[in-house]
Each structure stands twice: as structure tokens, then as C-alpha cells.
Specification:
Blueprint (H helix, E strand, L loop, with lengths): L6 H6 L2 E3 L5 E3 L3 E2 L5 H14 L3 E3 L7 H10 L8 E6 L25 H12 L4 E6 L5 H16 L3 E7 L3 H8 L8 E5 L7 H9 L3 E5 L12 H4 L5 H7 L3 H10 L4 E2 L6 H8 L8 H8 L13 H4 L10 H4 L6
Parallel strand pairs: 3-4, 4-5, 5-6, 6-7, 7-8, 8-9, 9-10
Antiparallel strand pairs: 1-2
Helix pairs in contact: 2-3, 2-11, 3-4
Length: 326
């Protein structure tokens, strides 16, 4: 496939300015669980359509595949924004185990510096645009990883650092070990779990919110039909001649939220990018907001403050004392 720049599409892209001045495309492509045989084609097609942000992680085991696809199709490194993540699993043989199973965690002697460097090597790049902590628990362990990211950031090798699934106590924990405020908080948001309080808290602090796990079930590619077939959203989609997925993505964009919908279907790749020619009305936004049930389907950040973590001890008391947003 030959890459053809889609100037009109690129000009339509919105950019969000992070708290350190770095500009990040508001719309990108999530890559978790994209089948390996489809990854190269998907990356090339996405770039041709106009995608300029690609979200990956060490744990996805596809960093190298993304790098190879971009290089093979002649994409200049500076023309794309790459997000990756550091995960607990990288430090233990067989991955990190929770609760009582944590008693069997076996350290593999990797340092934080080495694990971060592995992502650089996999991505075959001198710099990474955004590097996230994949999960904030155990908090002492997350603090250790955040300190490592801070060092790379201050050396200029990472343009911005951030977190996933974090609540105010987690930000307090990172502030205890680093003077760098996370630029992004990526967490689960959907019409059934609108996360309004956490979104408002982050945006008031100048932290960009990025939505994940909006349409897919935990660790699978099963779509959430309770969203895609929702009777409250279908009429809105029909009125704009759009799909339900497009309406939900627009609902996120209009809240100033960054999005990274995943697909390797050519038609949906185009649909997920075709969001800049319509606007939802305030009443339509309210209808979708009204579907909120606080239903965590995938990543519940509150668990990281409650779970007894046998291998590393419970969440430190000073962070567990948080009383919530009210």
C-alpha cells in the first residue's frame, strides 16, 4: 500500500495541548488485540485515512509490529504521535499475579530503566511521544515506575508522561515521588459509565482525559451491544446519518476527551475518523449522559485502593483515606 496524504482529513483533526505544551491529536487508533496478520494493513490504512496517533503498550506485544509497519510504508517518525505504556507484567516471570496468587510472583531482575528501554527498542525510535503507567497498583510499584518515566522525560527522551485508570489519591502518590504532573489520564468511559466527576477533576487540573474500553469487553474484541444497540442512541444516530459508534465517539470529542477507538475493519476505520462534519446538540448530549449507570466493565480504578495486594502489601493508608469526590 502506498501512503497518500489526506490533507483535508488531517486539517480537520483536532489537537489537544498537554500541560507541558506538547500537542496531541485528539483522535487516534487503539491497537490492543488487533490480530497480528492484520496489524500492518491496519496501520497503513489508518495513516492513509488520516490517523496520526497510535496507542500501544509493552503488554500488547505489538510495539515492534507497529514500528515495522510505519517504516515499511514510508511514514516519517515525526509525522506520528506514539503512545505506549509500562506494565507490572514486565517485571515478573509469567506476569504479575494479584491477591493470594501474588505470593508466587517471581521477580525477573529487570530494572525500570531496562523495561522502558525495551519499548524504545521495540518501537525502534529515539523518542516516545507519550508514555503511560498502565495500571496504578500496587501504588509503591507504580511510584517506582513513575520515577523511572520522570527521569527519561527530563532527559528529553519522552515528550510527555501520564497514567491510566488513576484517581486523585494516585496523583497524590505520584506527586510524592516526582515534580512532573501527569499530562494524560487514560481510563474507561462509555455512555453507561460517564465518569463525569473524574473527567471534571482531571480537566480542572489541566490533565487531558483519554477514553478507553468504550466499546469492547474486557480483554476481548466482543463489542458492547448494550451500547451499539441502545434505543436511546439509535434515533440520534439516524438523525445525523451516522452510526451509533460515531455518535458515541462524537459525544466524547465534544467533552474535550481524547479517543483511541480500535478496529481493523476498513469500513469502521473510516467511520471512526469521519467525525468532524456534524455536531451533537446539547439535548442529544444530555440524553447520552442520562444513560450513566456507573457500570465498570473493564478497569475499575477504585479496586486499586481496596484490594489486599498480598505480594506488595495493601495500598498505603495515606492514599486509602480518600473520601471520594463528594
Amino acid at each position: 500500500m502506498t501512503i497518500v496524504q489526506k490533507t483535508k482529513k488531517i486539517n480537520a483533526m483536532n489537537y489537544l495541548k498537554l500541560n507541558n505544551g506538547v500537542e496531541m491529536p485528539q483522535l487516534g487508533l487503539g491497537t490492543f488485540l488487533i490480530p497480528g496478520q492484520d496489524l500492518e494493513r491496519t496501520i497503513a490504512s489508518a495513516y492513509e485515512i488520516g490517523y496520526r496517533k497510535f496507542d500501544t503498550a509493552w503488554r500488547y506485544h505489538n510495539e515492534d509490529g507497529i514500528a515495522k509497519a510505519l517504516k515499511k510504508h514510508g511514514v516519517n517518525r515525526q509525522d506520528v504521535f506514539i503512545t505506549t505504556k509500562i506494565n507490572n507484567d514486565a517485571f515478573f516471570r509469567g506476569g504479575y499475579r494479584w491477591d493470594r496468587k501474588g505470593l508466587f510472583n517471581l521477580w525477573n531482575f529487570k530494572t525500570v530503566k531496562r523495561v522502558i528501554q525495551e519499548s524504545f527498542d521495540n518501537l525502534d525510535t529515539d523518542y516516545i511521544d507519550l508514555f503511560l503507567i498502565h495500571w496504578p497498583a500496587p501504588i509503591p510499584f507504580a511510584q517506582m515506575m513513575y520515577k523511572g518515566l520522570t527521569k527519561f522525560y527530563k532527559e528529553g527522551r519522552i515528550r510527555a508522561i501520564g497514567v491510566c485508570s488513576c484517581l486523585p489519591p494516585h496523583f497524590d502518590a505520584f506527586a510524592d515521588v516526582s515534580d512532573v504532573v501527569p499530562a494524560v489520564n487514560q481510563f474507561e468511559i462509555s455512555p453507561l459509565n460517564t465518569q463525569k466527576k473524574l473527567i471534571k477533576w482531571c480537566q480542572n487540573k489541566g490533565i487531558v482525559v483519554e477514553a478507553m474500553s468504550t466499546f469492547s469487553h474486557f480483554r476481548s474484541n466482543e463489542p458492547r451491544m448494550e451500547i451499539l444497540e441502545n434505543p436511546a442512541i439509535i434515533p440520534i444516530a439516524k438523525s445525523h446519518n451516522k452510526t451509533v459508534a460515531q455518535v458515541v465517539l462524537k459525544w466524547l470529542l465534544q467533552q474535550g476527551i481524547s479517543i483511541i477507538p480500535k478496529t481493523w475493519d476498513e469500513v469502521r476505520l473510516k467511520e471512526n475518523f469521519d467525525l468532524f462534519d456534524f455536531e451533537l446538540t446539547p439535548s442529544e448530549m444530555e440524553i447520552i449522559d442520562g444513560l450513566d449507570g456507573g457500570q465498570f466493565l473493564n478497569y475499575d480504578p477504585y479496586l486499586s485502593l481496596r484490594l489486599p495486594l498480598a505480594s506488595m502489601g495493601r495500598c498505603p493508608k495515606k492514599y486509602r483515606q480518600w473520601k471520594g469526590f463528594e
